[in-house]
Design a protein that fits this description.
355 residues; binds 5-S-methyl-1-O-phosphono-5-thio-D-ribulose; globular; alpha/beta; 14 strands; 7-stranded mixed β-sheet; 39% helix
């Protein structure tokens, strides 16, 4: 397979269409077999793309929501500001309901709403211009944040290290380099070599379908493992650090990320391996005191029983529990790497200092 690191780190998984009327995404549910782009114009299309994980990963969801609400606002027909704001909020609340756990969704939508409420004296066309600037800014800021996170994360690694990852927190899930996997791409660019173990990440296989695809295309040594193989690769001494992304970090450092992340952290603690969480400050929710306050998304049992199989692998009527995320206790996290620097315990203090 030809490798080209720039082609991977500069993937545009989400963007505003050239005419500014639609959100264009790579359909992540089709990878790695097909690279298909979707053009989203209606509120239902945007909501569904987020809900079905066609666009996924906390930062990418935020970017998509920013562009999405801008496109929807363009079509609001209101005779006055109050009517515009009412309809804007209705669309915003609808998009916000697509997925509950990643705080970036509401974070981006709230940013866009502030543009509307803080410029109420302006004419609607002028507000629209400001909304366009804001959604592009959310995207540009994310590129800069991912770069800085990757830089800080790389400072924690040595050439030749074995790294275990879970889920996908690379360029597809963000806008450049990524967060959890960002240091691997940046290090590779600088000639460093890592041996990466990518958890397949049941049940939706983001590790197998997306992380393995990205890393392999970038020429990074990646070995795909089933989630239940993490313990043996750690025991074998093949893992020097675990790096994962995050969907919501509570004020005390408890971190929601893809289901299975907390299990990796427990294993890492047992084997004495550092466990790093990497994410932008937009993923830190200081209004959320602890992990217990994080709303965990529950998804369709069909994802466990049949989604990726030729025929169902479980009795049709068996009960299933399918939480999309779990919360890793702050005591298991060695450091939280943000674009503003590396936070160490106690997180109640180090995270507070970021804001
Ligand atoms: O359900 P997903 O695929 O959206 O879950 C994504 C994750 O858990 C990622 O690790 C997280 O959003 C960080 S992405 C930079």
């Amino acid at each position: 397979m030809p490798t080209d690191i720039g082609r991977v780190t500069h993937i545009r998984s989400v963007r505003l269409s050239d005419d500014g009327t639609a959100v264009v995404i790579i359909d992540q549910t089709q990878l790695p077999n097909r690279t298909e782009y979707l053009t989203l114009t209606t509120a239902e299309e945007i909501w569904t793309a987020i809900n079905r994980l066609q666009v996924r990963g906390a930062p990418a969801i935020g970017i998509c929501a920013g562009y999405g609400i801008y496109c929807l606002a363009r079509r609001i027909e209101a005779s006055d500001y109050d009517g515009f704001l009412r309809e804007f909020r209705r669309q915003k609340d609808y998009l916000d309901s697509a997925r509950p756990t990643a705080v970036n969704l509401s974070w981006a939508l709230n940013r866009m709403e502030r543009v509307v409420t803080e410029n109420k004296e302006k004419k609607i066309p002028d507000i629209m211009e400001l909304l366009k600037v804001e959604c592009l800014k959310i995207h540009e800021e994310d590129m800069a944040m991912c770069r800085a996170i990757s830089e800080y994360g790389l400072s924690l690694l040595k050439d030749g290290d074995g790294i275990l990852t879970h889920c996908n927190a690379g360029p597809l899930a963000t806008s450049r380099y990524g967060t959890g996997q960002g240091p691997l791409f940046l290090g590779k660019e600088r000639g460093m070599e890592f041996r990466v173990f990518a958890d397949e990440t049941r049940p939706l296989l983001q590790g197998a379908r997306l992380t393995a695809w990205e890393l392999q295309r970038a020429g990074i040594d990646v070995t795909l493992i089933c989630d239940n193989m993490a313990s043996i690769v750690m025991k074998n001494g093949w893992v020097q650090a675990c790096m994962v992304g995050c969907d919501r970090v509570a004020a005390n450092g408890d971190t929601a990320n893809k289901i299975g992340t907390s299990g990796v952290a427990v294993l890492a603690k047992y084997y004495g391996i550092p466990f790093y969480v990497l994410g932008p400050t937009s993923t830190i929710d200081m209004n959320c005191p602890t992990g217990d306050d994080i709303h965990i998304e529950l998804r369709d049992p069909e994802e466990i029983k049949e989604k990726f199989y030729g025929e169902p692998v479980a009795p049709g009527d068996v009960k299933c529990y399918n939480p999309s995320f779990d919360v890793t206790d702050h005591s298991l996290i060695t450091a939280i790497v943000t674009e503003k620097g590396i936070c160490y315990p106690p997180y109640t203090e180090s995270l507070e200092k970021l804001f």
